Amino acid sequence: MPELPDVEVYKHHLEAHGMRKVIDHIELRGADRMLGDTDTRSLRKRLEGHSLTGTFRHGKYLFAHIGGNGWLVLHFGMTGYFEYGDDGEADPQHNVLVLYFKDGSYLAFNCRRKLGAIALAETPEEFIANKGLGPDVTALSESDFSTLLQERGGTAKGLLMNQELLAGLGNVYSDEVLFQAGIHPKTRLDRLEGSRRKALYQAMQKVIKAAIAAEAEPERMPDDFLIPRRGLRNAKCPFCGGTPKRISASGRHAWYCPCRQPEPE
Ligand SMILES: [Zn+2]
C-alpha cells in the first residue's frame, strides 16, 4: 500500500512524465466511486487544454497544479501507481484516469482495487484542512512530535498511523519506524521517556529518508531494515538474528522483533 515514500516516488514520476505538456483529453474508466465530490465533467473542464505546472505532496496525497486552474489531487489507496508511455493508448486494465497529452504521450493512474481517490482542490492547504490531516511527517519538528506524543498518547502503532495526527505513515512504515527505534507496537507513547521520544523521532526521519533514497523498493533499502524481510519464511532480525513476529495491533498486522522491541509492562 502506497505510503509517504512511495507517493514521493510517484511525485518524481509525475514530474518526469506529466509536467508542462498540454492535456489533449482525459479518459476516466470505472472511477466513479473514487471521485467523491467531483465528477467527470468537472475534471474534463479543469484539465483538458491545460498543463500540469507543479507538484506537492502531503502525507499520502499527491497534488498536481493545473496552471491557474486549481489542483488535481490523487490518493493511491491500496494499489495505485502511475503508468506512462510516449505514444499509443494506455492499457485499459485498471487505468482509472488517463491524461493524453498533445505530444502523443500519456500518463495513467492505475488503481486496480479502486480504493484510492481523485479530487479537485482550489489549494492544497484548503484540501488538507477539509480532510483534517495532521502535519506531514517530514515537516514535523522534534518538539512538535514530542508534544504530540505527550498530549495524544495511545499505542505506538495506532498513533503513528493516525493521519489526523501525523500524515504519511501506514502499516509497513510504522512497523519499520518502531523496529528501528526498538519500541514495541503496543507501547503507550504518553509514558515514553524524553530520550526515547527523541529516538523515535530520529528513527522516523531516518526511515523515511532512506526509503525515499531507495525509491521505496524493498531490495534497495538499508541492510538493517525489516521491510525486505516482512512476511518471508525463515526471516532473521538483522540486529539479533531472532525471528520477527506478527501480532495484531491497532487493527492491523504488525511485524516486530520480540528481542529488540520488548513488550511493555
Ligand atoms: Zn531482533
UniProtKB/TrEMBL annotation:
SUPFAM superfamilies: Glucocorticoid receptor-like (DNA-binding domain), N-terminal domain of MutM-like DNA repair proteins, S13-like H2TH domain
Molecular function, one GO term: lyase activity
Reactions performed catalytically: Hydrolysis of DNA containing ring-opened 7-methylguanine residues, releasing 2,6-diamino-4-hydroxy-5-(N-methyl)formamidopyrimidine
Keywords assigned by UniProt, alphabetized: DNA damage, DNA repair, DNA-binding, Glycosidase, Hydrolase, Lyase, Multifunctional enzyme
Chain segments annotated as coiled-coil in the UniProt record: none
A biological-process GO annotation: base-excision repair
Record-annotated Formamidopyrimidine-DNA glycosylase catalytic domain positions: 2-116
Family: Belongs to the FPG family.
The protein, known as: Formamidopyrimidine-DNA glycosylase
Species whose genome carries this gene: Thiohalomonas denitrificans
